[in-house]
Amino acid sequence: MAIPMSQSGREEAMKAAETVKGRSLWQDARRRLFRNKATVVSMIVLSIIILLALFAPYLSIHRYDTQDYNQVGCYPSSMIDMSKLNPPEGADPDSAAYKAYQQYNDEYPERVQCGLGIIASYEQAKSDFELYCSAGNSATAPPEINCARAPQQDDFTHVLGTDAIGRDLWVRTLYGARVSLSVGVVASFVALMIGVMYGATAGYAGGRVDAFMMRFVDIMYALPFIFFVIILMTVTADIPFFKDPFNRFILVFAAIGAVEWLTMARIVRGQTLSIKRKEYVEAAVAAGVSNAKIIRRHVIPNVIGPVIVFVTLTIPSTMLAESFLSFLGLGVQEPMTSWGVLISDGANEMETKPWLLIFPALMMAVTLFCFNFIGDGLRDALDPKDR
Amino acid sequence: MSEPILQVRDLHVRFNTPDGIVHAVKGATFDIAKGEVVGVVGESGSGKSQMFMATIGLLASNGEATGSVRFKGQELIGAKQSDLLKIRGSGIGVIFQDPLTSLTPHMKIGQQIVEILTVHKKIGRQEAQRRALDMLELVRIPEARRRMGQYPHELSGGMRQRVMIAIATACGPDMLIADEPTTALDVTVQAQVLEIMRDLTRELGTSIALVSHDMGVIASMCDRVQVMRYGEFVEAGPVDEIFYAPHHDYTKMLLDAVPRLDQPDRPGHPRLPAVNLAGRETLLKVDDVKVHFPIRMGGGLFAKTKPLKAVNGVSFQLKKGETLGIVGESGCGKSTLARAVLQLVEPREGSVVWLGQKELMTTRGAEMRRMRKEMQIVFQDPLASLDPRMPIGASIAEPLKTQEPGLPAAEVRSRVKDMMLKVGLDPAWINRYPHEFSGGQNQRVGIARAMIVRPQLVVCDEAVSALDVSIQRQIVDLLMKLQAEFGMSLMFISHDLAVVRQISHRIMVLYLGRIVELADREAIYERPLHPYTRALISAVPLPDPKLERAKPRAKLQGDLPSPLDTRASLTFLKSKAINDPDAEQYVPMLIEAEPGHFVAEHDPV
Amino acid sequence: MLGYIIRRLLGAIPTLFIIIAATFFLMRLAPGGPFDGERRLPPEIERNIKAAYNLDKPVVEQFGLYLGKLVQGDFGPSFKNKDFSVSELIALGAPVSLKLGLLAITVAILVGSSLGVYAALRQNTASDYTVMSLAMIGITIPTFVTAPFLTLILGVYLGWLPVAGYGDGALANMILPVTVLALPQIAIIARLVRGSMVEVLRSNFVRTARAKGLTEMQVVWRHVLRAGLLPLVSYLGPAIAGLMTGSLVVEQIFGLPGIGRYFVQGALNRDYTLVMGVVILFATLIIILNLVADILYRVLDPKVRLG
Fold first, then answer.
1. How high is the ipTM of this complex?
2. Chains in contact with A via at least 3 Cβ–Cβ pairs below 8 Å
């Protein structure tokens, strides 16, 4: 509405002009997002899972790669009988070392006092003691380790049981989460980078450049791409460089990212094209704004919404791809693990030890659910049609 | 008067939205008698369409209607679905606004008419086919038999709306609901469609409920008028009474806001200052500008391209401080012409000389960007022309920051606030976002953005077309006020002849990318020479019932021809046309019939 | 229409060539060969074997020879499955995979689109939410989880269905694999169809149809369905690619002797020619099916001209 104003009133208004704070589309979107219960719950659950994965080494007394042959295929929440901790391997039951070990076991709760937060030092204590035993220093007193609190029986519980070679499933599932989540995030990031650059270039350049670049994407789309990833993973299996677990890990990221960027490029290009045709971009051109500034000020802020949504939906699909590869035995290698590996192992023994399948699968499903709900929620929140 | 066809008593419509209950219609009460045409007029959001959707039970799923609606004595609110179905289509027919999206895209025209016949009449397919064909002929669709087998997208907008009318009237309903039936159409096509509606209903004695925002359409069609605002009737009465002796302030305001083709300078509004153009410097000299887009034709292995001559050799001059109005129907190239002048569209040819020295067509890159300080544009859709993620202050400041990069931030801010005041926006809103404002407010932002660098030329591309009349009036007044203050030249593009007449010193009529007539505003409206200009002017419905009734109608038959057909450019000079759609055709000359009055060559009428 | 098809088929040739070349060189340039894993052969014999498979020639020449054979429809001998040519292996596996794939896509389309239409017609009701939640589960839980779970429940605990094996294509043996393969596609299709149906139901022409006095059934059947199911047609290509990927796992888990299993085994033991054969076959299939989907789309939507 017009506000009629006299000259003096105008000056007053200019001086008084208390600036009214506007509500940006981002603020609107955030409000809508937090109104969506499924999304909020998903965000909470996902944060918990991420925290669990981050702090996995500190959350249990067990390690992801320790094989305990006394504890093979335990049921969930079965407990270690502390008196039956492993004797040093190949020890003669009559030897001094063995006896010392037994004695150590008996004295254990008093001697090793560990706080839950740094429970990994239990392993340290054990290996120190094994060293001490094998060195034959049975005469002197075993080393003493000072921690905050004596370990309780509960600390030794295998919450989710153990696998076929006595590794704790809870810890392994959390380590699997680390791998799967980081593959999801990093590979999506790879896809995002390639896709945004490629798509934005094609979309903004338009014309022949666009036609050529998109033709290439179309060709790539026609390929059964997962097959290429499989071939890539197999042919590199023998190259020494890729035998290093870390490098192999990177290869998995790159391979999956290379599949997912195509869709991202398409989405970004489509968005760029439609924004390029918007009148506010024409207005900027008419104002004499340079191309680089138009892209920075008008194109990117308006493309970001759909891209964020797509990234949230790409993460679960990259996680699926990784577990798919791992399931076929082409992903991360033992003793490192991922949800795909755990599920694959679990599926092999599901008739006798179903928990090995159920827990990792449940964990993965919940995570994927969360990502999808968050993605859907974001889309609804950012979609202007809803307004 | 006999028993009314439709009796509406205390009708309420409410919508349940995430932001709470919206009370769209608040207790509407009115009657429609047999054979009567009742107009419901109001601005957007007044609830006029929803009222009739509620009548036939077609509200959106979150809508709810209460009260009473009786159609021929039968209660419709809360009626059984099966009873409603019998009335829809056969008792009450509906014509919707947008003919393109209102017809099912994957069904042939014929099928869509046959369908309604077979649903309501107990007739066989053959008979229904025959009647559908009759209907198409009745709504004057040429080559009706061929059209039966065509899909909606193969027809022009005017044809599609005629198909809509054929569907709505196929079962001989007692009443028609026409919801903005001609809003999406060009004026000449609007005139034809209104004519068809008039004839059809007069013959059959059908009542019409005509929902429209256009006072001209209401004046030319209706017996009685209901004026609606915010879901309530503010005034109702016979058409002459509403137009000549309105009681309510809102009605008076509406009538005052409507631009009058026949009365350009009415009291109470800024008058267009008479300027002596001869003594003024020429700002812009446009010579033989052409914009041809290549269009891919047909499929096959080797598709060929044809040029779409959007602008095909246009020349004119614009003086400093002058407003040039550019009118024409959709597809005449008026927007493309403006963009070619502003160097915003490729590929273009010809010459655009700025202030007698600088050739813009060859100016590129940074130099052109600097030139843009002098020429700005205001767009049609106020919301789409503002970056949704930018506060309006930043949008207004953008040209200023770009053109004067050294300006301190405080200075930019104060200039933005100053300009906001000038266009009637509260400077306190500087940090608010476009979606928080109405269309009119956003258009003020668009004008502020264009004016902040004090350009010498502002192009208004349909700048008021998307706005309600009252807002339209304010924006036109604002533009005239700003021109008086800053003295810039305006190129004012619009399909609305009345608005153009109000604001322009000279007017140019475009037809398929060429000028057909160019003259000052009195000459062109009072002594139009070209048959197209005459048809255009006579097609505009005047918001004056008596004049409308008396008006002889110079009708233009048929629709706009395809601009890809080269014969189309000689529609008014058939004597020189070569009968081949691809042939190079004769170019009609622009003749100066009297000083300053140019008209394209045409066959005598 | 014919011109369009020809143009598309011509366009497919470079695509296929790129696929063949990429696969070929990727596999040849990597260290290790098909005969590395076996016990050390006398150099002479190894030379003979390599000569027999043309492995002693430069890679580019090998590629040329391979292409020459390929044009005549010869995929070459399998490196690992002695006495079998790749064509024979594919001929053995194809019927199994084809049967699995066709059943799965049929089930996916029928069930998926019915669920989608159902949910759209009951938009924002409990049944809509139920269907969509189930669809979400279908999308998020991967094939290799549903397969063992369903086997565990239906096969092991309840004993209703055989746990694994082809059983000469007996229906009982196919139920689990087909279900598992179709589930994610059912879910995706249901969501897709619901979304587009909801959009179409809101459109102006549906309002026109209602204003004609058609029953809801007639409105949906004549005016909504065709427009609402259009996006499904353009999804067919990706759906089939998804099924092919899924079949790799499903054939593995259920021990079905299909092409997917050959591929995984071939990739694991470097059976170059077999892998090449399967990739070429799948790529060709995907290209052709995409073309079919595009043509179908053009037939169904009169607005898209063949251009």
1. 0.81
2. B, C
